[in-house]
Write a sequence for this structure.
């Protein structure tokens, strides 16, 4: 089996690390060899944060090389574009949560620097030398922004994105119960698997 | 929820995916480490997270966050010469702080054993320099083990304790950022160590020493450091414990051209990745043999000589400085191995940054272009680079509602363009970013008072203001403050007190009233300063107008005293506000929490945008309620619903009073 590289990104404070940890555990419960790493430290204060998850029998380094991610998950629109620019394979998939946290330069220099538009993402993804499938998600009814990452996770589960890696919903649920307890576990499981 | 503490304590054999910082703690428990100390610093603070998880169940060891790395090292040393196996851990530059103590450790008979865990930071993820601490290990004659993933962290810590306890010498376990944080499956052995029954009698005895390194008495002590190092040959180590058979790894391939690579740590795993069969651009018949070293100081000279003499070309693949390279070339010279071409660093780039798979790939291409079939990856990047969309940078910034933001906003108003502001380490360092530009020079922990002292010499025209965080004040700030009193250096010091060690994950410091283990007497910064007879004013940073006034009047006093030729010294303002990230998290965890946020009265907004251009809370941006693909010429100010925490500290910055009070949205 070939290596699958998953790149998860967003802004410090969005729960990128937790999303990656859920994926890592889910894939591992489905019997895959996985390794990964998250950003810690300074960048967690509102900077770009990234997590790597790598799956396959011959993965050794937790880091992903540029332009070699098969799947990119982004929790913010500007980061989504940056992520595919830096990490996407020419043929890959981007799933992002469509919220905007304007970087400092966008806020300080309106008219010169602007937030990424949906159009820019689809243009980049569909340029002639590549074919990146783009999925944009948003749920305005969420009562806590810390659940935005669960919207992406539940998309992965519902659309069986990991079924080639033998993943079922149960593996996701098992991963969630490793990481959360009581009401938070209940709420997150609910997003994944509405009763 | 899985219970990390239970997993780490469970004496049975098991497997778990975890980062190196966690697997390390299992090794600490298994080996019976009794005293552990630290000062928080990336990439190591998660070691304490795992220790805290264990502590909730049972207390197999004593742990403390000490006031700084030097103190932490001394506490661990004291415990070791009393017979307890001890460990101190901290970040790369922490070793500079500890160096004065660290340099004597190898001279001492450490009867309990002592491990120093270093978190080096190649790639500069969270540090002010990229120093290679292997240099300091050599300076202090302390052996270094270097693991490359969580499994090796676990095993090599145990090896380190075996060496340290058998030889009564200090041993370094050198981790790097992605070894600390990299997550992979770890297989834990079962263990039977009964931590409750270990012998706790204080065993210090001067006859174990000598412990007094003065004048000629140092000579035999230095000699023992050398002798200890000399004994660490691989053949000797395996007699200590069978675990040492795992110390070095040799990968043999069928390569036809007798090429080899000597490497260690994480670069080894980057290398395996680049050479893996999964990358079909590798010419497998050219794949070199690999010798991966576990003990990187002192080097296993026999194995290295063997490897060199059986290969025609050997590349030394090492991150940061060329330390292995120099030593390996020395081995070749001494053993008269002249027919092996040893390839070290080739350009400056090879000395910089982390050896990621990317970097290892480009290094190998420079050395052996015929190792790879095509240059696919590079072509692909070039294809992408002629596209017009510029990448948006996103540097870290102060959190929404952060008290430092209010402080910088207010302090800036009291200063002239030409005045000089000095930063220290902590969240407030981010004040150097636009729009504040507050704190424009930075060295290291606790340096700002003394840098400001230097800046105030021969300077009667430009006012000098230094910032320091509260944890940093206790850590290394006090000597600089005393010096400015002792030698009369006038400047304004602003203590940015947020009541925690925020940047590294909210650890307690001496001003909090709690240490790692429970309640303790608060040691207020104000009292320390008053004891030193420093004039101190205290103010909450949300009180912006008053803060501006206070900075102005304090600077005026300093100026007047100067003009009158009085012997004056520093004055201090404690600009305090609790860390809002910590506070909001605590509030959110309560059941009765309701989120309130400010909003903009668009009819009042006169589009002066001072909330962005001067205050710059990340919650304020333009047009976020519109589809971004629309025309953006008419900027409309919006509050980001994901970000605003509703503290209201922004309201007074709007002269048009368009920011409405926090309310449920
Ligand atoms: S962690 Fe606390 S002190 Fe640091 S930037 Fe955030 S709110 Fe400010
Ligand atoms: S109330 Fe909201 S917008 Fe105002 S400073 Fe606080 S977080 Fe920023």
């Amino acid at each position: 089996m070939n290596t699958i590289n998953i790149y998860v990104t967003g802004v410090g404070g969005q729960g990128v690390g937790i999303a990656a940890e859920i994926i890592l555990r889910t894939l591992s419960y489905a019997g895959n060899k996985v390794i990964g790493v998250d950003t810690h430290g300074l960048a967690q204060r509102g900077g770009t944060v990234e997590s790597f998850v790598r799956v396959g029998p011959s993965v050794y380094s937790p880091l992903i090389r540029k332009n070699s991610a098969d799947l990119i998950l982004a929790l913010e629109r500007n980061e989504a574009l940056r992520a595919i620019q830096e990490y996407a394979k020419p043929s890959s998939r981007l799933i992002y949560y469509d919220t905007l946290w304007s970087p400092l330069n966008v806020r300080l220099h309106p008219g010169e620097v602007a937030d990424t538009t949906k159009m820019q993402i689809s243009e980049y993804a569909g340029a002639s030398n590549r074919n990146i499938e783009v999925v944009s998600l948003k749920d305005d009814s969420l009562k806590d922004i810390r659940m935005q990452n669960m919207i992406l996770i539940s998309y992965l589960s519902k659309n069986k994105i990991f079924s080639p890696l033998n993943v079922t919903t149960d593996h996701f649920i098992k991963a969630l119960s490793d990481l959360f307890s009581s009401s938070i576990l209940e709420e997150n499981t609910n997003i994944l698997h509405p009763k | 929820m899985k219970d990390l503490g239970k997993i780490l304590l469970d004496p049975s054999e098991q497997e778990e995916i975890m980062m190196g910082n966690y697997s390390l703690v299992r090794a600490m428990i298994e080996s019976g480490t009794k005293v552990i100390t630290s000062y928080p610093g990336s990439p190591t603070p998660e070691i304490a997270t795992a220790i805290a998880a264990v502590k909730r169940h049972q207390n197999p060891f004593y742990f403390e966050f000490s006031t700084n790395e030097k103190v932490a090292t001394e506490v661990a040393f004291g415990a070791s010469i009393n017979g307890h196996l001890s460990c101190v851990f901290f970040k790369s530059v922490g070793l500079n702080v500890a160096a004065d103590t660290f340099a004597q450790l190898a001279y001492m008979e450490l009867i309990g054993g002592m491990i120093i865990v270093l978190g080096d930071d190649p790639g500069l993820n969270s540090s002010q320099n990229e120093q290679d601490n292997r240099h300091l290990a050599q300076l202090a004659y302390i052996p270094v083990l270097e693991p490359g993933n969580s499994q090796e962290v676990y095993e090599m810590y145990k090896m380190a304790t075996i060496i340290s306890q058998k030889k009564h010498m200090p041993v370094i376990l050198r981790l790097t950022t992605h070894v600390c944080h990299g997550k992979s499956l770890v297989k834990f052995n079962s263990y039977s160590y009964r931590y409750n029954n270990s012998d706790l009698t204080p065993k210090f005895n001067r006859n174990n020493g000598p412990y007094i390194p003065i004048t000629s008495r140092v000579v035999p002590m230095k000699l023992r450091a050398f002798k200890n190092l000399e004994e660490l040959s691989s053949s000797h180590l395996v007699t200590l414990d069978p675990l040492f058979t795992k110390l070095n790894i040799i990968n043999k391939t069928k390569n036809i051209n007798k090429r080899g690579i000597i490497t260690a740590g994480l670069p080894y795993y980057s290398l395996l990745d680049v050479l893996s069969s999964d990358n079909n651009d590798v010419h497998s018949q050219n794949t070199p043999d690999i010798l991966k070293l576990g003990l990187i100081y002192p080097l296993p000279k026999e194995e290295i000589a063997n490897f060199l003499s059986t290969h025609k070309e050997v590349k030394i693949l090492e991150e940061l400085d060329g330390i292995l390279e120099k030593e390996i070339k020395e081995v070749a010279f001494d053993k008269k191995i002249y027919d092996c071409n040893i390839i070290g660093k080739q350009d400056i780039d090879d000395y910089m940054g982390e050896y990621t798979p990317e970097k290892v790939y480009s290094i190998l291409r420079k050395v052996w272009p015929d190792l790879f079939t095509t240059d696919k990856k590079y072509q692909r990047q070039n294809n992408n680079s002629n596209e017009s969309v510029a990448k948006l940078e996103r540097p870290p910034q102060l959190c929404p509602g952060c008290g430092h933001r209010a402080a910088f906003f207010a302090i800036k108003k009291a200063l002239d363009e030409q005045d000089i502001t000095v930063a220290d380490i902590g969240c407030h360092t981010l004040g150097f970013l636009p729009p504040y530009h507050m704190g424009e020079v930075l060295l290291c922990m606790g340096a700002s008072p003394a840098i400001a002292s230097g800046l105030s010499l021969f300077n009667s025209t430009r006012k000098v203001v230094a910032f320091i965080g509260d944890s940093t004040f206790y850590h290394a700030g006090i000597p600089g403050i005393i010096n400015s009193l002792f030698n009369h250096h006038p400047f304004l010091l602003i203590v940015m007190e947020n009541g925690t060690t925020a940047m590294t994950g909210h650890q307690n410091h001496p001003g909090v009233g709690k240490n790692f283990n429970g309640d303790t007497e608060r040691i207020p910064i104000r009292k320390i300063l008053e004891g030193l007879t420093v004039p101190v004013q205290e103010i909450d940073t949300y009180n912006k107008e008053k803060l501006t006034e206070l900075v102005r009047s304090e600077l005026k006093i300093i100026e007047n005293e100067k003009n009158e030729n009085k012997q004056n010294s520093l004055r201090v303002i404690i600009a305090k506000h609790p860390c809002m990230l910590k506070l909001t998290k605590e509030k959110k965890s309560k059941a009765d929490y309701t989120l309130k946020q400010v909003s903009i009265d668009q009819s009042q907004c006169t589009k002066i945008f001072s909330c962005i251009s001067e205050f710059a809370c990340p919650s304020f941006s333009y047009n976020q309620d519109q589809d971004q693909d629309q025309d953006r010429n008419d900027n409309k100010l919006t509050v980001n619903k994901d970000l605003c925490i509703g503290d209201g500290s922004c309201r007074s910055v709007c002269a048009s009073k368009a920011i409405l009070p926090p309310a449920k949205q």
Summary: The pocket of iron/sulfur cluster (ligand 1) is lined by residues A 45; B 398-399, 402, 404, 427, 498, 502, 579-581 (CB under 6 Å). The two ends of chain B are 33 Å apart (CA to CA).
